[in-house]
Each structure stands twice: as structure tokens, then as C-alpha cells.
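Weekly modeling sync, notes
Attendees: S.R. (lead), two postdocs, one rotation student

Agenda item 3: backlog of single-chain predictions. S.R. asked that every request posted to the team notebook include the full sequence so nobody has to chase files. The rotation student volunteered to paste the first one in as an example of the format we agreed on. Action items at the bottom.

Example entry:
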Amino acid sequence: MFKDILEKGAKIKIIGCSDAAGAGSSMSYKTEELIFEEDGKKFFRRVAPNSWWGLLERYLQDNYSACSLENRGCGGAYSYQINKNLNTLISGDDNLVFLLIGLNDRKRTNGMEELKTNCECIVDQLISKGKIVVLLTPTPSVHSNEYYPNRIYHTDEVVKILRDIADSKKILLVDNFKYVMEYLEKNQLVIDDIIYGDGCKNDGLHPSDYVQKLIFENLIKTLQI
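Predicted structure, as returned to the notebook:
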């Protein structure tokens, strides 16, 4: 299915939070291009050539040259902000939308309820506009980051909600959390062993180049492209 869509020259849009934008990878930086402003905060486009989507972009150029890809991930954005500004993030001629949100909602009192409501609303809106939606889960983070005082909820709770939504809405899920956890188990590693890297953010949350490659590999396998 996705191979056919790409061969026909799909226009791909990536939206979500910092993980969607590729934060954590080396050579990643914010530009001065404003995506939207909400609650007094400005969200700028990020360039991230060594991120999962940077790898995807090069892969598409080599194998599906008729495709175009644009990333409008917004570092620090909550799901309600993505939902509220969806018409700014999406273009009318987008065919395929990758959505990765939820980690920031862990810091909000009713964060998981908000995530469920907003993610369902985003998916419904995109489908109603004729877009093909692919939902992605985040990757695991180290224990010290997972249990910062402001983490009211945890990544596994975010992942469960995203899995449930993908199942109920009958859309494809790229389960990066499961893929990385299985990789760690197979190789007798812990996330601390692979989440840090030279020139990467190294905060224990945002994926290193190594983990970004795992996300890319999982995406290609899941889409079967």
C-alpha cells in the first residue's frame, strides 16, 4: 500500500513534538522559521539531518524521488497545541501524515486524558480531510529522566494510549517503543547503553543518532517500503 502511494509522488508531512522534529540527534538545530505561536510561546522548525526523518528523507530521495517530505515538529508542544494549530501544520495537498506526540503531556495534571482526546481529534480531522495517518510511539528514556519531579505520567502510559488509538481508529502504528525494547532485550542492553552519542543532546530522553537509526529502520519495516 505505502509503496504504491510513494511511487505516485506522495507529499508527506511530519507533525508532533520534539521527537517528531528529530531533537536529540547530532547536527540538529532550530531555525528561525516560525511554525506557530501559542500561549505566548513560539515554535520554530528544526533541521535534523541525522534524525529518523532526515534518514527517511534521504531514503525517499534515493528510492521514491517523486515524493516530498516536510517536517513541522514543534519541540515542547503539548497535544492540545498541536490539535489547536492543526490547520497551520497541515497543507491541503498533503497525502500522508506521520504523527508523534505525547511526551510533553506527561507534565500536565490531566495529561493522559488530554493526550487521548487531542490525539483522537487530530486523527479524526486528518482522516476527514482525506489524509493517510501513521501514528508513531516514542522510544524509552533512561530512569533518571523518566522520573524527573515534573513527570506526572510516564512513557509507557503515553505508548498505551497511542496503541489504543491506532487500534480503535484502524490506522498504522509504528511502535518504536516496542522495537527498541525488543532490540535491547535481544542484545542484553539497557537504554542507557544506546541513548547517548557524540554531538547528541544526551539528556536521557531525546534519541541519539543510534536510536534515531533504529526508529528509521522500524519505520521502513512497518511501512514495508
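Discussion: group reviewed the output briefly. The mean pLDDT is 97.
Action items: rotation student to repeat for the remaining queue; S.R. to check formatting next week.
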